[in-house]
Each structure stands twice: as structure tokens, then as C-alpha cells.
Write a structure and sequence with these properties.
With about 210 residues, the protein is α+β, with helices and mostly antiparallel strands. The protein has 2 domains: about 100 residues, 2-Layer Sandwich (Alpha-Beta Plaits); about 60 residues, no CATH class. Helices cover about 20% and strands about 25% of the residues. It has a 4-stranded antiparallel sheet, with helices on both faces. A hairpin with a 5-residue loop joins strand 2 and strand 3. Helix 1 runs antiparallel to helix 3.
């Protein structure tokens, strides 16, 4: 009865093919082909949409070399159930035409969501620690190593009573082994230590 009503409402000769809905999720393309061929329809090409896990999305397209084959397909498949699957909805045939049906068929599997573009975050910070040594003269060199380009800054270091520290920043070039050092001044009690300071240095020689 359903097949007769469908045939009467649609001019299948003017369509590009048949869009079959309500295919059971566990039905693969070969099982669908076997079902259609068992109905006596053989001259067709089929394409079924599936999920990445192999389950059917519930629809497929059928095309025929002769347009008269579409009417035969509808009369034998529309409103039927594929045996061996638990499915309450009968197979439903509709014309395969227009951009909507083609768009649905092209989406045969889920596409992964686009990853979010990389956005630069805050600069990585690293702490520098070392021992102060007495120095004489107005210019000096220091040894050190550099691993990657970074801006190193420090503020508010813990200093014992009687001391205070000034902020310092150092920008190290990647692999170059050179750096421009900012001045760091540490005041110490004159009774125990002499005032010393490290003036800006021109180059930082990398250890071998």
C-alpha cells in the first residue's frame, strides 16, 4: 500500500536516482545490496553513507542505467524491512535530486573538528641564581650558557635585613651564547662588605 502511494506521488522518470532512508545502523553496504538483489533488482549502483565505525548513517543513494529501473526498485523496496535487523521504521524511497540530497551523501563520515589555531601565550620565565663575587674595574665578563630565546626577569627577591635588591632583566638569544645584561646593584652593610656592582656587560661567553 505504501509503495503504491509513493509511486503515484512521484514521477521517478524525472529524477537522478533514489534516496533510500531508514537503513538499519548495523546494516553494511553488502547486506543492503543482497537485500535489493533478492527483490529482483540488479541493474543499479549504490552508495551508502557510514560512520567511521562502519555503522550505517541510515541512508543510501541508488542510480540505474535505465530510468525505468527506478520504478521497479520503488515498487519492490519502498515500505519493506531488511530482515535480520531490529528496525521499526520501514525503508523509505524519495527522489535523489537537488543540492540537499547530494550534500548529505557527500558527508559519508564525520570530519574531525578543526583544531584551534595556536596563539602565543605569556613569555616563559626562568629564574637565575648565582653567587656574587668581589670585582674591580669598570668592565667584566661572565660565563654562562643559553638554551633558548627567553626574557628573564626578577623582582622582589628575598633579601636578609640590611640588604635590598634592584630588578634586573636579561634577554638571551637562542644558540648565540651572547646576552645584553642589565645592571644589578646590591647594597650591603659597610661593616662587613664593600659596595660592589656589576656594570652592563657587552658579551656573554658560552661554555663549551
Amino acid at each position: 500500500m505504501a509503495s503504491s502511494r509513493c509511486s503515484a506521488q512521484v514521477d521517478w522518470e524525472s529524477t537522478d536516482g533514489i534516496f533510500l532512508r531508514n537503513i538499519p545502523a548495523k546494516c553494511d553496504e553488502q547486506a543492503l545490496r543482497n537485500f535489493v538483489q533478492a527483490k529482483g533488482v540488479t541493474d543499479f549502483s549504490a552508495e551508502m553513507a557510514v560512520f567511521p565505525n562502519g555503522n550505517a548513517k541510515g541512508f543510501a543513494s541508488f542510480r540505474f542505467s535505465a530510468r525505468s529501473g527506478m520504478q521497479d526498485f520503488v515498487s519492490k523496496v519502498h515500505g519493506q524491512f531488511i530482515p535480520g535487523f531490529q528496525k521499526t521504521m520501514p525503508l523509505f524511497c524519495e527522489p535523489l535530486r537537488g543540492t540537499e540530497s547530494r550534500r548529505i551523501l557527500r558527508s559519508r563520515s564525520y570530519m574531525p573538528a578543526p583544531s584551534r589555531p595556536w596563539a602565543p601565550g605569556p613569555r616563559e620565565h626562568s629564574s637565575i641564581s648565582g653567587e656574587g663575587r668581589n670585582s674591580t674595574g669598570s668592565h667584566g665578563k661572565s660565563k654562562g650558557t643559553s638554551g633558548f630565546s627567553t626574557m628573564v626577569s626578577g623582582k622582589g627577591f628575598h633579601i636578609e635585613p640590611g640588604y635590598h635588591s634592584a630588578s634586573a632583566s636579561t634577554e638571551v638569544a637562542s644558540g648565540a651564547g651572547e646576552a645584553t645584561c642589565g645592571a644589578m646593584v646590591i647594597d650591603q652593610p659597610s661593616s662587613k662588605f664593600e659596595l660592589w656592582h656589576a656594570l652592563p656587560c657587552d658579551r656573554l661567553v658560552a661554555d663549551d
